[in-house]
């Protein structure tokens, strides 16, 4: 991911909330490696079926010639296919559970820190910020820490490991097709760089507008007695509807930016796939590649492009989340105006009485 200095600082600070839960992070990383291994093995039973069962070619694994018949190979291929998918599903279940637990704790800690800082800030700060907007930041913008951890950290690590594994296997199958498959990477990187700041800015505008909606709703409901006393229901309704309309516009703009980025990414990946189909089919016709190898290579291609797509969408989602995170760090980075003097004693309990002396009426 390509982040500007301030966004990189916010991203790092969000990830620091995972530090107290190192065991959960380590467990998720371990399960990730196992999952990638299952993913690499999944296409091979299909190659055995196409080349060694249907195509009647002898099965050779290194220097080993098993000598199994077609029926036995078909049974083993089907059993392996089932075990690989079942194993991956079980690992994904464990990984998702750990991720949910870790992210929930990170959000809890971030919300706790925000409330602690809000209580320490002066009344001048609270007078200049609407209560509804602050509530929206603590309640909703804190989900940015989950996006940063899941998409920006775990997603990037898993995609990178998957890319390396797939690239090595594809290079062993066909170096020429591998180079063609990776030719689109520079275009993908350029599109990520071009859209990054635009997605961040559009998301920040929408998050700010959503804060205004929450703030105006809070003001109207908290002052509902005055609204009804002065018959301002219609006026307040019009003000709220206008604010909601502005939120719709900012959300639409943010969605269009992200969707156009997704469209460009899809077209780039589809171009690479079409080019590979053209060259790969000609390699099969020329006898330099078996049908099974071509099918396995295309399966790896889909698995190769999936991490690339995840990386591109991770950039989009993280940039959007950082737009909301900037609103959180406006609170966390605010310096309290009232501070205790150096060496001040902590009062454990204060006792006293209030007395009126010399009071006359």
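Sequence proposed for the structure above (361 residues):
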């Amino acid at each position: 991911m390509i982040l500007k200095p301030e966004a990189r600082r916010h991203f790092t600070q969000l990830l620091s909330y995972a530090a107290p839960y190192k065991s959960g992070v380590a467990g998720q990383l371990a399960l990730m490696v196992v999952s990638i291994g299952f993913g690499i093995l999944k296409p091979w039973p299909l190659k055995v079926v196409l080349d060694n069962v249907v195509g009647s070619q002898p099965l050779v694994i290194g220097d080993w010639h098993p000598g199994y018949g077609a029926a036995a190979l078909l049974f083993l291929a089907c059993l392996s296919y089932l075990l690989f998918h079942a194993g991956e599903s079980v690992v994904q279940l464990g990984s998702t559970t750990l991720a949910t637990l870790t992210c929930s704790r990170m959000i809890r800690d971030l919300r706790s820190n925000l409330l602690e800082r809000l209580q320490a800030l002066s009344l001048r700060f609270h007078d200049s910020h609407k209560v509804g907007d602050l509530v929206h930041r603590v309640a909703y913008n804190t989900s940015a820490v989950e996006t940063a951890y899941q998409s920006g950290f775990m997603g990037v690590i898993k995609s990178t490991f998957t890319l390396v594994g797939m690239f090595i296997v594809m290079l062993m199958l066909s170096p020429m097709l591998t180079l063609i498959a990776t030719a689109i990477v520079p275009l993908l990187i350029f599109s990520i760089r071009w859209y990054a700041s635009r997605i961040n800015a559009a998301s920040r505008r929408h998050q700010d507008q959503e804060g205004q909606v929450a703030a105006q709703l809070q003001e109207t409901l908290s002052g509902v007695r005055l609204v009804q006393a002065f018959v301002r229901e219609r006026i307040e309704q019009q003000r709220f509807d206008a604010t909601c309309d502005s939120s719709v516009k900012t959300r639409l703009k943010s969605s269009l930016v992200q969707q156009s980025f997704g469209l460009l990414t899809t077209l780039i990946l589809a171009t690479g796939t079409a080019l590979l189909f053209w060259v790969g089919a000609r390699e099969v016709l020329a006898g330099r590649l078996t049908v099974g190898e071509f099918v396995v290579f295309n399966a790896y291609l889909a698995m190769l492009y999936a991490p690339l797509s995840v990386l591109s969408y991770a950039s989009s989602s993280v940039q959007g989340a950082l737009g909301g995170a900037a609103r959180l760090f406006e609170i966390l980075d605010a310096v309290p105006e009232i501070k205790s003097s150096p060496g001040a004693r902590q009062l454990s309990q204060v006792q006293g009485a209030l007395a009126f002396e010399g009071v006359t009426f």
